[in-house]
Write a structure and sequence with these properties.
single chain, about 45 residues, mainly alpha, 2 helices, about 90% helix
């Protein structure tokens, strides 16, 4: 019975950790990508 309660909790924790990590990474790399890649460069394809 305990595993039925632990499994969803672990899944939510892992998913939340991955989502939080992705958010932190995207927030950290956003200034870098803005400095290197300009919107105009992507439109010239």
């Amino acid at each position: 019975m305990r595993t039925a309660l632990i499994a969803p909790g672990v899944a939510v924790t892992l998913f939340g950790g991955v989502a939080l990590g992705a958010a932190l990474v995207s927030a950290a790399t956003m200034p870098l990508t803005r400095g290197r890649i300009r919107p105009g460069d992507l439109r010239e394809e």
